Amino acid sequence: MVSMSEATPARRGRTPSADVERELLAAAEAVLVREGPGGLTVRAVATEAGIAPMGVYNRLGGKDGLVDALLIRGFDRLRLSLEEAFAAPGESAMRGRFVACGLAYRQFALANPHFYAIMFEDAVPHEHDNAEVGEHAAACFGALVRAVEMSAAAGVIAAPDPLEVAQQIWSAVHGAVALELKGLMQTQDPQYTYQATIATLIRGLAPR
Q1: 186 is in which domain, residue-wise?
Q2: In this predicted model, what pLDDT tens digit does every residue of 108-124 receive, in sequence order?
Q3: Scanning 20, 62, 93, 119, which has its CA 20 to 30 A from the CA of 146?
C-alpha cells in the first residue's frame, strides 16, 4: 500500500515576493530589448513572465512601476560601466582612464539603445516622478563628477567646478551619441568622430 504522502505530490511553496519581482523585471527587460519602448506593456510583460497581468500591478504597481525598475537598472549599469572603465587596470595614465570613461558612455548607449531611450528620451512617458529613480540617476552622474575630480587632481584637465565641467562633458557626449543613435551623423566613421570629440574636450579643458 502506498502511503498518502507518497501518493499525493507535495504542494509547491509560494515563490518569494522578491523572486517574483526579479522574474517580472527580467521579463520587462526582455520585452524592452526585443520590442522596444513601444512594446513595453503590462500585458506583454505578464505574458513573458507567465503570470496574470494583475500580478504586475500587485508586485510593481503597473506600467509605471515596471518603467521605474528598468530605469534604476539602466542607470546602475551605466554608472558601473563608467566606473569600471575609469578604473581599468590597463589604463594606468589618468588621461587614458578619462578617455576610457568617455568611450564607455558611447558603448553603453550603442549596446543598450532601448534602455538609453527610456533613460534620456522619455520614450515611455511617466505620470509621476520617482525619488528612487532620481537617486540612481544622480549616482550615475556622480560617477562622471568623480572622474572629473580625479582627472583634474592629476592635471589632465582644469576643473575649478567639477559639477559644471561634468555637465559640459555630458552635454557633449550625450549630443554626439543621440545624433548617432538617430542616424543623423554626417561623417563616415562615427567612432572616429566620437573619439575626436573626446580629444577635443580634453584639449579644451587642459590647464592653462
Answers
A1: 64-205
A2: 999 999 999 999 988 88
A3: 119
